[in-house]
Amino acid sequence: MENNWLDLANDVVVITGALGGMGRKIANDFAEQKANLALVDLNEEATESYAKELASTYGIKAKGYSCNSTVEDQVDALVEKVVADFGRIDVLVNTAAILKFSLLEELPLDEWKQVVEVNLTGYFLMSQRIGRRMIEQQSGRMVHISTIASISPETYSGAYSPSKAGVNMMSKQIAAEWGQYGVRSNCVLPCFVKTPLSTKFYEDEEVEEGRRRMTANRRIGEVQDIANAVLFLASKRASYTNGEELRVEGGFGIMLGDLVPKPGGRRQYAIDSKKPKA
Ligand SMILES: NC(=O)c1ccc[n+]([C@@H]2O[C@H](COP(=O)([O-])OP(=O)(O)OC[C@H]3O[C@@H](n4cnc5c(N)ncnc54)[C@H](O)[C@@H]3O)[C@@H](O)[C@H]2O)c1
Questions:
Q1: pLDDT tens digits, 48-95
Q2: Is 269 marked active-site?
Q3: Cys-Cys with 9: which of 34, 86, 104, 130 at CB 3.0–4.6 Å?
Q4: CATH number of 12-273
Q5: What does pTM read for this prediction?
C-alpha cells in the first residue's frame, strides 16, 4: 500500500476539541498525511502552540483557534477566519464533547442543557456553518465522533447518551440532505479508549480487566484505532460511504451472548460436552 493511499495531502481539515485525547491524535495523523490543519479548542495559546508543533514536525500549514463550539458568533467568526487563512474547508471533524455523571432522578436541568448544548448543538452549529461553505463548493466531508453509548445507554451519565444519539441522527440527516451537493457525513462510534475524558475509569485494575473482558479483542482501544477510522471516512477512499455509523470498539457490541454465564464457563462447557459420558 502506498503511503499516500488516503490522498489527504493539502486538504484543509478543521478539528474541534483538538486539544483532547482523541483530537490531538487525529490532528497528528492528518498532519502526517500532509493535510493542512485548523485546530479548534477553548484555549487559544494551547491550540496555537500545538498547531506550531505539527506545522514544524510535518511541514504543513496549521493554525490554532479558540472557539466555543456552542456560541453562534464565535463559530461564524471562526469559519470566516479559517476560510481567510486557508481559502476553503474540505473536512470537518467534530470531537468537542463533555461527559458528566448524575442519576436521572437528580439531574439538574442546567446540567442536562449544558451537555446537550456542547455535544449536540455544538456539533450542529459547526456542521451547519461549515456545511454552507461545502455546499457552495459542492464538496466536503464530515466525521463526527459519537460513541457506542449512543446505541446502548451510558447509565448514570445524564444527557450524554441522548445527546450522542442525536449526533447519529443529525449526521444521517446531513448525509440525506447534502449528499446531492457532494457533502458526506459519517459517525465514528468508539467504546473504551484511554484519554483524559476516561482516565478515571482505568485507575482501578479490576475495572480495566472487566472492560477488556467485554470486548471480542480483549483489549482497551487506543486513540490510534479511532484516528485510523476518522482518516478513512474523511478520505476519498470512503467516497461512497455516507450516513454511516462505524463502530470502533473491538467487537464490544457482539459480546452479549458470550457474557451469559454457563456452568464451569462457556468455553469449558463446550469442551466438556464432547467428553465421553462416564
Ligand atoms: N474517551 C473515550 O473513552 C470515549 C469513548 C467514546 C466516545 N468518546 C468521544 O470522543 C470525543 C473525544 O473525547 P476525548 O476523550 O478526546 O475527550 P477530551 O475531554 O479529552 O477532549 C474534549 C476536548 O473538547 C474541548 N471542548 C469541550 N467543550 C468545548 C466547546 N464548547 N467548544 C470547543 N471545545 C470544547 C475540550 O477543551 C477538550 O480539549 C468526544 O466526542 C467523546 O464523547 C470518547
A1: 999 999 999 999 999 999 999 999 999 999 999 999 999 999 999 999
A2: no
A3: 34
A4: 3.40.50.720
A5: 0.97
